[in-house]
Amino acid sequence: ESDTASEISFQFNKHKKTPSIGSHSSDMASVSSVSGSVLSVYSGDFGSVDAQGTVEFALDYDEKSREFQVHVSQCRDLAVVDEKKGRSDPYVKTYLLPDKARMGKRKTSVKKRTVNPIYNEVLRYKIEKMVLLIQKLNLSVWHNDPLGRNSFLGEIEIDLASWDWSNRKLNWYPLKPRSLSAVNGVDHRGVMNLSIKYVPPGSLGKMCPKNPPSGEVHIWVKDVKDLLQLRPSGVDSFVKCYVLPDTSKKSYQKTRVIKRDTNPVFNHTIVYDGFHTEDLKDACVELTVWDHEKLTNHFLGGIRLGLGTGLSYGISVDWMDSTQEEVAFWQEMMSAANEWIEGLLPLRSL
């Protein structure tokens, strides 16, 4: 059924409140940093103030240095966040969409106690022009709160494919409220086709030579459709897998890299043993898709299979956040022992 099979064994540590970080691989460090970047485009307080005011900026592309430049000049008439003190501490943040993880965010300095901040700063992206033209620029203004959540003050989104690149002048643009889809993080990243199966301990009978002494979770990653195309040549993608809360090297597995294909076929099976049936309520299978490059890998999207309760062995964790589709998929596996459960699940920001 698959051209590659991996089997690893581990035991969950139910007594520690947080997973051990001593054995994190360099790949896991990459997961942590990139996931933080992806989340930050959607994190913050969107409902405390109404978006208002304008922002002045200009766009340019330097052919010699192959650099996209956002000249952020100033803002006017921003919303007041702290009404008692009559103050806002605004800064400007930019992303290239939909490729938030790869390009990362850029932001200006924070200007304190003003609704008319002046920046005169240039935010720079090293990127090929033909790749830039399949992106959108998201420019947003935020109030900086060092003790809490930053407050959203407004945004503008520009389709760079239709931008007039002869226009290098500073222009004013009205700030708009965040759309509901953006707040919820709804962006199409592709769909993963996979099957999963749970084999309870001793369930195959004494006469079966492969009867597991402990339970096993089988994960069959078949293919992914409609990945983000980061380069004109396509995407060099692979899939990483962890069973949380274990983030050690023995929990880490990955597929081979499929080159230059936005619809890669992996056909890769992973088997995790050491499972007891009660572990299924507290564990979470995290599958993430990455674009492979020489210097660093770039996050494309992922899924988390679990009950989505927010708890693992009684401890509150942010990764137990499965969507309704992911929860239903996991529950079906739990209720149908020894049967392959097949599904198509949308990739998302984690």
UniProtKB/TrEMBL annotation:
Gene Ontology MF terms in the entry: neurexin family protein binding
Note the CDD domains from the entry. Answer: C2A_SLP-1_2, C2B_SLP_1-2-3-4
Keyword Repeat assigned: yes
Sorted alphabetically, the Gene Ontology BP terms of this entry are: exocytosis
Q: Recite the UniProt keywords alphabetically.
A: Cell membrane, Exocytosis, Membrane, Repeat
Span of domain C2? 51-173, 188-320
Q: Which residues form a coiled coil?
A: none
Major site of localization recorded for this protein: membrane
Give me the Gene Ontology terms describing cellular component: exocytic vesicle; plasma membrane
Its subcellular locations are:
Cell membrane
Q: Which domain of life is it from?
A: Eukaryota
- Cross-referenced InterPro entries: C2_dom (IPR000008), C2_domain_sf (IPR035892), SYTL1-5_C2B (IPR043567)
The name this protein goes by in its record: Synaptotagmin-like protein 2
- The organism of origin for this protein: Alca torda
